[in-house]
Specification:
The complex is a heterodimer of chains A (584) and B (348). With 584 residues, chain A is an alpha+beta fold. Chain A is built from 21 helices and 12 strands. Chain A is extended, with a radius of gyration of 36 Å. With 348 residues, chain B is of the alpha/beta class. In chain B, helix 5 packs across helix 7 (178-195) and helix 7 packs across helix 9 (204-212). The chains are: A alpha+beta (584), B alpha/beta (348). Chains A and B meet through helix 9, helix 10, helix 13, helix 18 and strand 12 of A and helix 1, helix 2, strand 2, helix 10 and helix 11 of B.
Chain lengths: 584, 348
């Protein structure tokens, strides 16, 4: 016994209670704690990025999910809506529904008589989709012809943006004093018993001061630059500096003269006064009174008590907006009449693409993606699994199968655009399949996904314990029976996982689709795999490149739809996997 | 195991593929080509579909060069009926078309697209000449001894004291873009002509290389084909300057302002009357041989040149297209309606 206690000569001693050992232990524990912290940190960082990304997309997408509509009553007459005077559906389809809406708008604003104003009223307020709404209504029930019909007309995208508050900041303040209204030719002169207009004037002066400061900064920069040059250049610079200083001085002088009246030009924030049921755009303000033009006629010129009239400031100057003050006034007037309401934009989910941002929908791309994915799945799952089963279970191991295996692995790393080129050369040019069709898209994407599925399926087959196979063979099953009845079902969860990764990859592809013509503007929702169609990622790409701001919101909304599609696809796969899951 | 059913479905699909392979008559107009003309042609396509004259045409965004290649590949329903182009058809493309049997091409000049150099509203005002833009963006510029040297300019004020003392930081389209080609031809070439007049005479090849090569030291940043992205970046970075089409400037007037080029501010009127020189004509080319074969093609052309589309107050001008002057429009309309084909000696 004592022999064992005595350490053999030359061996190191490992005490567990010595200080050294304790320090070693602490170091090991600390290393483990650090590693765990790194892990948690990495996950937290990824989670933060994900939250920031998704919330950014959601915030940007919000304006796409609502739309403003005007509830208006129009009376379609037979002459307007029918091209040949009958209620034949074909004739009703090609009627002039815009004329009906124009008459309806004219009724709402009877004072609009000049050609220019009427054109603005007809073009800038309502979407061209409003006529489609009316047409559908009339087609559904031709009996409404000649009767007053109440429809919800969609606003144009610029009007919609204004109503959503995305075009300009709005600042509303109630009048503090009693207001007097006097007519002076075309103009209206307003006075208030409280310093309402003095305050408005001060705001204008503040804007001027900011403008002057910007000019001064520019002039100072140029002065510094002028010191280093000579000759003509210097002269040109000094002229420019003098101009700027002059502008700045003028603006400062205007700002400093606190009581001097100011003209409100298009590059200053607009001020609209709501009074007596009408809207006046202020053109000139002094401390005591304001002069303006009438945008929406006043009911009367009676004096108005404090708090019963408002001044609305639009912080974005008229020159920088797509909607001018006249259209804004019409919108505000309609809002006050209670005819404007926000609705859920169901059309986003029920219509195809459009060049009018307020009418563009995702359904075409969604169906296009679904059809493409269907073709891809139907092709690549049986072929991929079949190839994997053969290579893994039946094929002899030789040079040839090694070569095939290497090539499958290489194929998985080929850039997707190459598959697009292949699709163009093979399916379109050689087989003569239709361009832009989900059928061809599905074929190309199937090629893209096949290697992924084969590799994943082989790995899944390999991971089934040999005991299963051996047991099946042992009780007399043929090789094929052993594979198809026992090995393959057990490998199914792994195969499903591989398939879903491949399909998700395919869902997000745009590059190969470009070459086979699926990056296209297509209004009609596809009905079969040979109709022209586009796909979700393509739609996102196309919308993101259009200039109208509302398309930016639609882009974000389309991204959300794509994510939802992905989640549903993954959810289905998990569900299927659960059903196939077996334990051993 | 449902393996067998999967196999049969796959077999059915393949059979369907084979059946669809037989060429089929087409009832839908197909258009390919430039992404710059895409927003306008799609608007016409949608109106055409709405009017009940036929199915709305499919408009692909393939780029001008890619579109021309597809367009000129042949006649028949396998090939597109029209192509959008942000420049005129080239002689080589025209010859290619002829070779493949696309004999009669109808040219429709749609209008103009102004190229703008713009920056954030909160940034300095720019008043640039084409020479200054050349000096700011070319890879090689004349040094002190007149020889070409690597571009030494870091700040705008290094080029001209009147320009802002800010780092040169220009966000623009990548080399694959038609917009980049136009920028090179409309700005860099005329700018270089004034500065490198001698070189142009002595060595035309070196001269072409000088204006065609944009600097790669970080002052010029490829911002991708997406103009909206450039607008967003300009909004976030007041010191940067961007290059993009006029319609984006118009839509984003609240955020960005256009630089004057050679003293002219880009706006609707200056582009339409030609005062603003950095603008390019846009075209759509149609195959005359397809009229009467593909249903509705003639009506589609009619819709495109109609007053409500191309006119001064047409819906295309509301989409940001700068329309042709009235007399030119009348001429274009007459030519297109008479289906006058483009001839080889049209000065391509």
């Amino acid at each position: 016994m004592t022999d064992i206690a005595a350490p053999p000569p030359g061996a190191r001693r490992f005490g567990l209670s010595s200080d050294e050992a304790q320090a070693r232990l602490r170091r090991r524990h600390a290393a483990e704690a650090r590693f765990r912290a790194y892990g948690i940190g990495a996950i937290a960082l990824a989670a933060i990025f994900l939250v920031v990304l998704i919330s950014d997309v959601v915030v940007k997408a919000m304006p796409a999910f609502t739309e403003y509509r005007l509830t208006m009553t129009v009376t379609p007459t037979l002459e307007q809506v029918s091209s040949d005077g009958t209620t034949d559906p074909q004739a009703l389809r090609s009627g002039d529904y815009d004329a009906v809406l124009r008459a309806g708008l004219q009724e709402l604003f009877p004072q609009v008589t000049t050609r220019a104003l009427r054109r603005k009223l007809n073009n800038d307020l309502l979407s061209s989709g409003a006529a489609m709404t009316l047409r559908d209504r009339v087609l559904a029930d031709p009996a409404v012809i000649g009767q007053p019909v109440t429809i919800e007309a969609l606003f144009d995208d610029a009007a919609d943006l204004y109503l959503k508050g995305l075009m300009t900041g709005r600042r509303e303040s109630a009048g503090q004093g009693q207001a007097q209204v006097t007519l002076d030719g075309e103009d209206v002169v307003l006075t208030s018993s409280a310093p309402d207009f003095a305050r408005a004037l001060a705001e204008v002066k503040e804007s001027l001061r900011e403008e002057a400061a910007a000019d001064r900064r520019e002039a100072a920069r140029l002065t510094a630059a002028a010191a280093d040059v000579s000759g003509d250049q210097r002269e040109a610079l000094q002229r420019r500096i003098a101009d700027l200083e002059g502008e700045a001085a003028a603006a400062e002088a205007r700002a400093a003269a606190a009581d001097a009246p100011e003209r409100l030009t298009a590059d200053l924030p607009s001020k609209l006064v709501f009074i007596n049921g009408g809207i006046v755009k202020l053109t000139e303000i002094s401390a005591s009174e304001a002069r303006g033009t009438v945008l929406v006629p006043l009911a009367n010129t009676d004096a108005v008590a404090a708090g019963r009239w408002d001044i609305l400031t639009l912080t974005q100057p008229e020159a920088n907006r797509r909607l001018d003050d006249q259209v804004v006034a019409w919108l505000e007037d309609l809002k006050q009449r209670g005819m404007v309401a926000s609705h859920f934009a169901s059309r986003f989910f029920t219509s195809g693409d459009s060049r009018e941002p307020e009418q563009a929908g995702i359904l075409g791309a969604l169906i296009g993606s679904a059809l493409t994915m269907l073709v891809t799945l139907v092709l690549c799952l049986p072929i991929g699994v079949g190839a994997a089963v053969y290579l893994e279970e039946f094929a002899p191991k030789n040079r040839l199968t090694d070569l095939i295996e290497v090539n499958i692995n290489n194929l998985a790393a080929v850039p997707s655009i190459v598959f697009g080129l292949l699709g163009l050369a093979m399916f379109l040019n050689f087989f003569g399949l239709p361009r832009s069709a989900p059928l061809v898209g599905g074929l190309v994407l199937a090629l893209l996904v096949l290697p992924t599925i084969i590799i994943a399926s082989r790995a899944a087959l390999k991971s089934v314990p040999p005991s299963i196979r051996e047991a099946a063979l042992g009780i007399g099953a043929s090789h094929q029976q052993a594979v198809f009845h026992h090995v393959l079902p057990l490998a199914m969860p792994g195969i499903m996982t591989g398939t879903i990764i491949g399909m998700a990859h395919a869902l997000g592809e745009t590059a190969p689709l470009l070459l086979i013509g699926m990056v296209a503007f297509i209004v009609d929702v596809p009905g079969s795999i040979t109709d022209a169609a586009t796909a979700l990622p393509v739609q996102i790409y196309l919308w993101s490149d259009l200039p109208e701001p509302l398309f930016q919101a639609k882009t974000a909304a389309a991204i959300l739809v794509l994510l939802a599609f992905l989640f549903i696809m993954n959810g289905l796969a998990i569900l299927l996997r659960r059903r196939f899951e077996r334990r051993w | 195991m449902n393996f067998r059913s999967l196999v049969s479905v796959a077999a059915l699909t393949l059979a369907g593929v084979a059946a669809a392979g037989a060429a089929q008559a087409r009832d839908q107009i197909r258009i390919v080509g430039s992404s710059t003309v895409y927003p306008f042609t799609t608007a016409v396509a949608e109106q055409f579909g709405r009017s009940g004259a036929g199915k709305a045409p499919v408009v692909e965004s393939t780029g001008t060069g890619g579109g021309m290649k597809l367009f000129c590949a042949g006649v028949g329903t396998d090939h597109p009926d029209a192509t959008n182009a942000s420049r005129r058809i080239k002689k080589s493309e025209f010859d290619d078309c002829q070779k493949n049997g696309v004999a009669d091409i109808i040219e429709l000049k749609v209008g103009f697209d102004g190229l703008t150099v713009a920056n954030s509203k909160s940034g300095p005002d720019f008043n640039l000449s084409k020479e200054q833009l050349f000096l700011a963006l070319a890879k090689e510029v004349p040094g002190a001894d007149g020889k070409l040297v690597a571009n030494p300019y870091k700040n705008w004020s290094d080029i001209d004291k009147a320009l802002p003392n800010e780092k040169i930081e220009v966000l623009g389209p990548p080399p694959t873009s038609g917009t980049r080609d136009s920028f090179l031809e409309l700005v860099m070439e005329p700018g270089a002509e004034k500065i490198l007049a001698d070189l142009k005479k002595s060595d035309a090849k070196a001269f072409a290389a000088a204006w065609k090569t944009i600097r790669e030291d970080g002052a010029y940043i490829d911002a991708g084909e997406n103009d909206n992205l450039i607008v967003q970046k300009l909004d976030a970075n007041p010191k940067a300057v961007g290059i993009f089409g006029y319609s984006f400037l118009e839509e984003n007037a609240a955020k960005i302002k256009g630089a004057k080029i050679d003293g002219v501010t880009p706006d609707f009127d200056t582009i339409a009357d030609g005062k603003y020189s950095v603008s390019r004509p846009l075209f759509v080319y149609f195959k005359k041989q397809h009229i009467g074969v593909v249903p509705g093609l003639d009506k589609f052309i009619g819709e495109y040149v109609s007053e409500k589309a191309l006119g001064e107050d047409g819906y295309l001008s509301r989409k940001g297209l700068v329309p042709l002057p009235a007399d030119q429009l009348t001429q274009v309309r007459a030519d297109v309606e008479a289906q006058k084909p483009l001839s080889a000696d049209a000065g391509l």
